[in-house]
Automatic annotation (TrEMBL):
Main location class: cytoplasm
Lineage: superkingdom: Eukaryota
Single GO BP term: acetyl-CoA metabolic process
Pathway as given in its UniProt record: Lipid metabolism; fatty acid metabolism
Pfam families listed in its UniProt record: 4HBT
Catalytic activity: butanoyl-CoA + H2O = butanoate + CoA + H(+)
InterPro entries associated with the record: Cytosol_ACT, HOTDOG_ACOT, HotDog_dom_sf, Thioestr_dom
CDD domains given in the database record: BFIT_BACH
Entry protein name: Acyl-coenzyme A thioesterase 12
Alphabetic keyword roster: Cytoplasm, Fatty acid metabolism, Hydrolase, Lipid metabolism, Repeat, Serine esterase
GO molecular function: acetyl-CoA hydrolase activity; carboxylic ester hydrolase activity
Subcellular location: Cytoplasm
Positions of the HotDog ACOT-type domain: 59-174
Length: 185
């Protein structure tokens, strides 16, 4: 369906419109940067070798969770609430990040959150989270969500419905940022 252009009446409308245009530009830029990185990393022989003695293997941060979508998790059409999926994603990502920080990670930002498709009441949602990289005082956790109905579950044919990168900090009792150890991909 083609939508009619929005009629901007007030100064506030113009400001909000300008901000929305900029957010869209940045979001689309992120997609292009990500696609470029993926193309570059797929070149044969182009890979990163990481050698650091105290680095933690990323597989130690892998967390998987399975949720069953029930009627309270969905709207009147039977589609899972996006906010519910986001909450489950944040939980599994937080557990993944906590495997490195030995503290309670604090969500700083969510990047490249994308709904690829719907899920419905009765679907089993499989959440896979793993630390992608650590920085001085933050960690990036990638989360992928796959949905299965009963038939897809039996045939092991998932539907990729969501992906996101979540950035966490860890703080001590005084509110000071804690460093994260390096990871070995």
């Amino acid at each position: 369906v083609e939508l009619e252009p929005v009629k901007l009446l007030s100064t506030q409308d113009h400001l909000e419109h300008s901000l929305a245009v900029e957010r869209r530009r940045i979001r689309l830029g992120h997609v292009q940067v990500f696609q470029n990185l993926m193309q570059e990393s797929n070149k044969e022989g182009d890979y990163y070798i990481f050698e650091e003695e105290d680095a933690v293997p990323t597989e130690l941060t892998h967390v998987q969770s399975i949720e069953l979508v029930l009627p309270p998790h969905a709207n009147h059409h039977g589609n899972t609430f996006g906010g519910q999926i986001m909450a489950w994603m944040e939980t599994v990502a937080s557990i993944s990040a906590s495997r490195l920080c030995r503290s309670y990670p604090v969500l700083k930002s969510v990047d490249m959150f994308k709904f690829w498709g719907p899920s419905f009441v009765g679907d089993r949602l499989v959440f896979n989270a793993i630390v992608n990289n650590t920085f001085q005082n933050s960690v990036e956790v990638g989360v992928r969500v796959e949905a299965y109905n009963c038939e897809e579950w039996i045939r092991d044919q998932p539907r990729h419905i969501n992906s996101a990168f979540l950035i966490f900090n860890a703080v001590n009792d005084k509110g000071e940022l804690l460093p994260f150890p390096r990871v070995k991909p």
